[in-house]
Amino acid sequence: MSVVGVDFGTLNTVIAVARNRGVDVITNEVSNRATPSLVGFGPRARYLGETAKTQEISNLKNTVSCLKRLAGRSLKDPDVQIEQKYVSAQLVECGAQVGAEISYLGNKTSFSATELVAMFLSKVKQTAQAELKLPVSDIVMSVPAWFTDVQRRSLMDAAEIAGLKLLRLMNDTTAAALGWGITKLDLPAPEEKPRRVAIIDIGHSDYTCSIIDFKKGELAVKSTACDRHFGGRDFNLALVNHFQKEFKAKYKIDITTNPKAMVRVETSCEKLKKILSANQQAPMNIESLMNDVDVTGMITRQEFEALIEPVLSRVTVPIEQALAEAKLTKEDIDVIELVGGCTRVPSLKDRIQDFFGKQLSFTMNQDEAIARGCAFSCAILSPVFKVRDFAVQDICSYPIEFSWEKDQDIPDEDTSLTVFQKGNVLPSTKILTFYRKQAFDLEARYAKPELLPGKVQPFIGRFSVKGVKADPKTEFMICKLKARVNIHGILNVESGYYVEDQEVEEEIKDEEGDKKDPEAMETDGDKKDGKPKTRKVKKQVRKGDLPIVAGVTSLDEPSLAAAAEKENSMAMEDKLVADTEEKKNELEAYIYEMRNKLDEQYAELANDDEKDKIRAKLTETEDWLYEDGEDATKAVYVSKMDEIRAMAGPIAQRHFDKVEAERQELQAKLDA
Ligand code: ATP
Ligand code: K
Ligand code: MG
Q1: Which end of the chain has fewer CB atoms surrounding its CB within 10 Å, N or C?
Q2: Residues 401 and 473 in one domain
Q3: Does residue 405 lie within any of the structural domains?
Q4: Ligand 1 atom at shortest distance from the alpha carbon of 342
Q5: pLDDT digit string (tens) for 340-359?
């Protein structure tokens, strides 16, 4: 069993695995420690991760980026319209969610955001399996703290479609915090003042600041604030806009009319931006950008900083918000830890440092901290792995309210209640009580839609409570429902039961505050042996279960099963195409190798007639490869190779015999 942590980023995804000696980041098929979060489509197969990146510029219309930011969103959402600026494929409506329209296997088709994420995650799974040489199932994956129920459920569905068991969806900064805390041996004891850390993650697209209290063996998130449109891609865009204007004036070309040119300039700007983190100026050179024009340019760090000023000026907002929500001041913060690729930008670091008036810490690997934290979390949650436990307490990002229809017989009843406030600890269970005579429905939704990202729907779920019957004595049933925000940050009404008021004997305790769980009441036996003082009290005694039918935004079982089957067959098709390509390449290489052998080690071992026959066969096969055989099946490539092998077999045998004879001769000499 493997233990895997995945930092699913907007630009890059990092995979970490827990092994006996600790947590390691693994490399992908081209030895990179991060994989582009991209999915592409071609006439014969999909391109996932690195291959999608390689194909990107020549396959813009069929390449989808920013996958996680599309999950669970709708096309009309203004946030999704912003994403379209960064996504080269056409975004379309795909059922209730946004999807992308692409050309795949020669047909125009569309896939939903959930399906696209599932494709990428199945690649993540393959990469981890290839490295670990073990089946991979259990993972913990990171998610921006600002993701809502519907977005989180979309990611969970995607993981399931990809055949992964998601043990926790963990907020980015919380994951980084776990990685920070679990290795510290000097955290304050339970009775001491906690160590207060601000964890700041600025990535490609968004910015999160969390204030976190650490004590020995535990962390508690106190507050989290986000700017979901603040990151490296905004800096890239500022540079692209600058060069777009410059090229228009200087070369009379408008890159906005040419998508390929735009992407090439953006790629250059990303490089240039990184150079500017370590240098005062950086060059821009692109050959034949468009209309055969070569462009050159130069930009200084100072100019760059002026370009990004509109973004930079907001850099302390999330920190101020997080401090205010935690009711703390910047002086209360002991450590400021920065993660995420964008925190390498010097002016950004300077402003954060000036704000705190204190040295910033970069003690974690900025690109890998979140994946490592996720792997630690997976190790803690996995039954097969022994690690020191570290309790992680997060918080709800948005208030959640329940509403229900008024019961005519209960005149003063409210019809809604905010059950989980923003900042409520997570995970958390609350018991809701209703007096009812018949089945009823509850609806859960976010209480303040204006706090939600873009136009995300506030609806979370509808829960029908069945099996409710009036009690003949009291004319109603006392229904108890367990509402839980679980470790993924999603809400469910997990179970229901009904209770009756009963008089029970209760031991009189001297001390106050010994609150008992009402559920435990049934099992309380009489202790008559001693002589404890008792009194009669009214208690609610659990009498039976109430079935609940939940209507939430996750895919239902049949849809999940169908999507998993579809994903599986596309993955098999990809594999077949890859294997076929491999056999074709092998055949091609074998032809060259055989030609060389005929001129070298086989030269003395065959007569001209034999050699000519084989050479003719090689030429014939080669010609076939470049014409009719361009697009053959795997079996045909294998059989072509076997044909040549059979012809060359007798010569290969002679060569083998010769080598063997020489070896024996040498051995005999050595033995003598
Ligand atoms: P997100 O967290 O927003 O979903 P992500 O996790 O994929 O995205 P990261 O990998 O943390 O993002 O950061 C990527 C960003 O960091 C890119 O915009 C990249 O250009 C930027 N970046 C990386 N190195 C540097 C550097 N040396 N200087 C400036 N920016 C950098
Ligand atoms: K990342
Ligand atoms: Mg990130």
Answers
A1: C
A2: yes
A3: yes
A4: 16
A5: 999 999 999 999 999 999 99
Model confidence band, residue 527 (pLDDT cutoffs 50, 70, 90):
very low
Are both 281 and 418 inside the same structural domain?
A: no
Instruction: Please name which ligand lies nearest the alpha carbon of 340.
Output: 1
CB 122 within 8 A of CB 73: no
Atom number, ligand 1, closest to the C-alpha of residue 340: 11
Q: Are residues 17 and 126 in the same domain?
A: yes
Residue 4 CA, ligand 3 centroid: distance in Å: 17
Torsion, Cα 121 123 126 132, to 10 degrees, reads -70
Domain annotation covers residue 340:
no
pLDDT tens per residue across span 98-112: 999 999 999 999 999
Residues 34 and 130 in one domain: yes
Q: Whose CA is nearest to atom 2 of ligand 1?
A: 203
The token pair at 170 is 């963990």
* pLDDT cut 70: percent of the chain above it: 97
Atom of ligand 1 nearest to the CA of 278: 27
The ipTM estimated for the assembled molecules is 0.98
Q: Is residue 201 part of a domain?
A: no
Question: Of the candidates 355, 390, 425, which is a domain's last residue?
Answer: 390
Residue 180's pLDDT is 97
My answer on whether 521 and 583 are in the same domain is no
CA–centroid distance, residue 542 to ligand 1 (Å): 53
CA dist 627 → 45, 584, 621, 623, 632 (Å):
21, 13, 10, 6, 10
Q: Confidence class of residue 530 from pLDDT cuts 50, 70 and 90?
A: low
Mean pLDDT of the chain: 94
Same domain for 149 and 74? yes
- Check whether 514 has a pLDDT greater than 60: no
* Span from the CA of 237 to the centroid of ligand 1 (angstroms): 13
The CATH number of whichever domain residue 299 belongs to comes to 3.90.640.10
DSSP string, 628-663: GGGG--HHHHHHHHHHHHHHHHHHHHHHHHHHHHHH
Please tell me the predicted confidence (pLDDT) of residue 531: 67
Tell the residue nearest (CA) to atom 1 of ligand 1: 203
For residue 116, the enclosing domain spans 4-192+364-390
Count Cβ atoms below 10 Å from residue 80 Cβ, excluding itself. 21
412 CA to centre of ligand 1 in angstroms: 54
Residue 318 domain-assigned (yes or no): no
Residue 599 DSSP class: H
